[in-house]
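Protocol step 4 of 5: obtain the predicted structure for the target chain.
Materials: sequence only (see below). No template structures provided, no constraints applied. The aim of this step is simply to have a reference model before the mutagenesis design in step 5. Sequence pasted as it appears in the construct record:
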Amino acid sequence: MTNGQTTSHDEGYVLITGASSGVGRTMARELSGSHRLILGGRDPDRLQQALGDCVSPGKHLAWRHDLADVENIAAGLGSLLAEHDASVSAFVHCAASLDVLPLRSLTTEMVADTFRVNVFSAMEIIKALTKKKLNKQQLRAVVFISTIASKFGAKGFSAYSASKGALDALMKSLAIELAPQVRVNSVLPGALRTPMTESMFNDPDLVAKFERDYPLGVGLPMDVIHAVEFLISDKARWITGQQIIVDGGRTSNISA
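Step 4 output (C-alpha cells):
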C-alpha cells in the first residue's frame, strides 16, 4: 500500500537506486509507508533530503555510492548490510545516466560511463545480493526501470537506448538464471512529467506532439511506481522475464 501507513515487512528492505532524484525519489517517498527502504544515491545532501521525505525516516537506510564506480559496489553494499544486520528482498534499479547527443559527439568513454551506471552497476548489485553470506538468500524480486526508447529509435539517444536495450536483455537472462528464487522484470515508461522534464512542457509544439502521440496523455511518476509496487509484491508471483510497457498507449499508436 502507498497510503502512508507503516507496515512490517520481515522479508527485508527494498533497495532503490537513483533514489535521490526524479522518479526514484518519488518512488522512495511513496513506498516508504509500506516498505523498509535502502535509498541509493551519490549526492549526500540530496540523499538525506530524500530520506527526510520518507514516512518514518528512521526505519530506512541511505547508501551513498556513485554507481559509475562499479568495482566497489559489492564492498560498499556489503558493508552497509553487515553494519545494520539487514537484508534486501527487492531491488529496483532507477538510476540512469542520459546524455542526448548525436553519434558524432559521442566518445567511447562517454558510452562506457553510460553502460557502467545503467547496466554494469545493476549486474554487480544483483551479483552481490545473490550471495548467501552477504544477503542471506533473501532477494525475491528485481525490477529494472528501462524505457520505450530501448525498443524504438530516437535521435541523440543511441548510447542511452543501447544501454537500456542491454538492460532488458540482461533481465531476460537473469529471469531464467535466478528462477525460481528471484523474479526479474523491466518497466518501460514513455514520456513522464517530472520536475526534471518540466521545462520540456514549456514548448507548445512538443506538448501538442505528446497530445497527438499519447492516446492516454503524458504519464506521471505514480504510473510507473504503481507498476513497480505490483511487480515486487507477491501478487506478481508468477510473472518474470517480462517487459511491462507503461506508456499511455504510445507504442501502440502507429499513426504517431
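Step 4 remarks: The chain has one domain: 13-245. The CA atoms of residues 97 and 114 lie 5 Å apart.
Proceed to step 5.
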